[in-house]
Amino acid sequence: MIEIITEADYKDRLAAMQNGVLLFFKKLCPHCKNMEKVLEKFGAAKPGIALYGIDIEENAAA
Questions:
Q1: What's the whole-model pTM score?
Q2: N or C: which terminal CB in the chain sees fewer CB atoms within 10 Å?
Q3: Three-class SS of residue 16?
Q4: How far apart are CA 40 and CA 50, in angstroms?
């Protein structure tokens, strides 16, 4: 599952992450929703990889 992070904690999460994916998304973007589904399937197949998502409209500074 993709863990949603914010601009307040994304730097710490990225610094601590060895293997992972960070998805920048918009809530109403249909392509972002499709990518989320693909990444969740990927995460299920590769449980050692961290999956993070950050909403670029709510966290523009990130």
A1: 0.85
A2: N
A3: helix
A4: 11
Q: Which two tokens stand for residue 18?
A: 């060895």
Give how far Cα 54 sits from Cα of 40, 45, Å.
15, 22
Asked if residues 53 and 23 have their Cβ atoms less than 8 Å apart, the reply is yes
Give 2-56 pLDDT, tens digit per residue: 999 999 998 999 999 999 999 999 999 999 999 999 999 999 999 899 999 999 9
Strand partners, 21: 51
Cα distance between residue 30 and residue 36, in whole Å: 10
**Stretch (H or E) spanning 21:** strand 20-25
